Amino acid sequence: MADVARQFQVRQFFSLLKLPTLIFHMIVEYLSPKEKGVLSRVSKIIRELLNSNVKTWKDVDFVISPTRLNQCCYIVALLHQRKATSLTFRNISGEKIQENILKAFPNLISLSIPMSNTSTPKLIENYCKKLKKLRLWNLTSSFFQREMPLRFGDVIRRMVHLEILSLEGDELDSDRFPEYTNEIKKGIVCHTSLTKLEFHFDVMELPWIVEICCFNPKLRSLKVHSANKMKGRRLPLKYYRDVCTWLEDFALEEVNLQGLLLPKDHLKCIIDSVDKCQSLVSLDLSYCRHEILLRMILEHLYKLPELKHLNLTKCAIKDDMFLANHPKLYNLELKSTAIKFIGIQRIASIMSSSLKYLGLANCYYIQTADIKQLPSLFISLDTMDLSGCDSLDNDVLRGWYLQPAKPKLCPRKIVAKGCMNIDTEMIKKVREKLKNKLFILT
């Protein structure tokens, strides 16, 4: 019976750092100064949270899930004390709930809210005059069909401070709802101060996006999810020339084209103008399963001298796709690819001294002997993601950190989610050896 009670008691312990920041501070408010002092010695992160003042709260994104009106007063009272400037609605909420909360915070700078009712755009316009970042989610075709008279584009047009806009929904088909989507487009086009645009739709027309981008000269980041479903695949080549003109005229720093799948002649048209994108810093090509197209893009990476971040998650990667003239990357994501150790060696010969992050999660062709050599290949590597790699075991950690002849530089942070061959005892030994300078996320 005592053993059962002891096991039950142990299970009640959990990491305070897993709690949302808001909940953490609510708990801390009930502690005495002595108790806070004891807690501050547990972790540097906890110590920083305890020492934070009201100004620190301005950088906190408060996530709320109001479902009843009587919750609104409590939420408003709590967040007023923290002078909240960033709010995220986690679930669908009614009109009255949204209104009661939004009108209490006229100084909101960032807002993530569902399009759960017809009045949501009007509420944003009336109560969020200073918004710089807006994320609208739960946009559905059925909603657009029912609410065609609502001119959401006018609301966007009047948000003069808006810099970042993200629209997320299941489907936005301009063939079925031309009036509505054109109004949205007009509103975005009028926003010459936008620096970041993000679209999460299953169906998008490429000319629709191109026209928006061509009227936003300050645009630095463009993200188009589900690019493989863009109806631009069936469009004439002239639309792709429009894309090229836009690429040449504007100094983009981040481009996300997940699932890129375009006809070869269209892609070549875009690639021919890549050398004009001298300022491009981040490129996301994840889920590109067309090997020939991916090879064409990577062959032209040398035309992007400022490129630092490359995401190739679930791409049709081959070991010979990385070339000696590639830019010196800081971050390289190769999650769930068929990369082999010979490909890793090739990458190391190109960017050994520059690479800070390497993502090899679920790369099943990487063996234990290969992983042991990684720190000696990348001398500047700070973080490595090896989640799902069964090859990461106790022997690897022992060889990296506990052996006298270990490499001089090893990753300070290892993400090892789903790695079942390392145990907590080995992690404890390594952390003691390195005086808690190693962070392992399992």
UniProtKB/TrEMBL annotation:
PROSITE patterns linked to this entry: FBOX (PS50181)
BP term (GO), one: SCF-dependent proteasomal ubiquitin-dependent protein catabolic process
Boundaries of every F-box domain copy: 13-60
Any GO CC annotation of this UniProt entry: SCF ubiquitin ligase complex
Top-level taxon: Eukaryota
Cited Pfam families: F-box
Protein name as it appears in the record: F-box domain-containing protein
Organism the protein comes from: Exaiptasia diaphana
